[in-house]
Amino acid sequence: MEPLTLVVIVAAAVSAACWILSLITKDTSWVDRIWSIVPIAYVWIFAGAALAEGKDAARLVMMAVLVTAWGARLTFNFARKGGYSGMEDYRWAILRGRMKPWQFQLFNLFFIVLYQNALLVLITLPAQIAWQYDTPLGVWDAVFAILFLVLLLGETVADQQQWNFHRAKARAGGQLGDGFVTAGLFRFSRHPNFFFEQAQWWAFYAIGATAAVAAGLGFWGGAINWSIIGAVLLTVLFIGSTIFTEAITSGKYPAYAEYQKATSMLVPLPPRRRAPKKSPHPA
Question: What CA–CA distance (Å, rounded) separates 141 from 132?
């Protein structure tokens, strides 16, 4: 069995489980709970297949180790926020209130479960390219692997700054500064953790593309190949999700509009003008 076939089978089983559990528990956050776990399994399936077939698996093993580090960090951050304790994403509750029950169930099935599980497969498919073109590791592999790790560090710092702020806010009785973090990396981006998360998967795509280029495929078909769809769709998802999240935040915090004017939404950039008062405990 080819590794891609096995990945699709596993993804179908995971999707069915997420949908059934959402119906039984009336909790639609099951995809969130497997988000940082199943990509690790998918990439290791490709790496394991290459090893079993006697291919040069160095690139795939490296990709699998990188994704394992990504997943371990994200799983830890999700767990400490209570993600595995039965807490549903607050955004789904808001959408449920805006839709008729049958409309929300269609949204649950087709977007939350099927689309997002398909996306989790798609973002890992640069590993399929690396499995097809098992060329030796080169300098560009090292460059993109280091970039992946730098982006992983950036997301770690941003999540920690956000975690510190919310803990300090809870200790202050729910009122702290403007109500949202604006210091540290959040001075340069309203969602630096979102930026670093997406960028890691672009670096992952680049590693797969490096294999294709090394096999002689050139720019079209090599540097730009069909597996780019995963990174593109992930970025589209994050942009849409960020816009929705900010609409909710703006309704809760009057000062958020000024923060939006001063600070880039995703890509870290120098503030456009003086930002609101810095929130404490960014580091």
Answer: 16
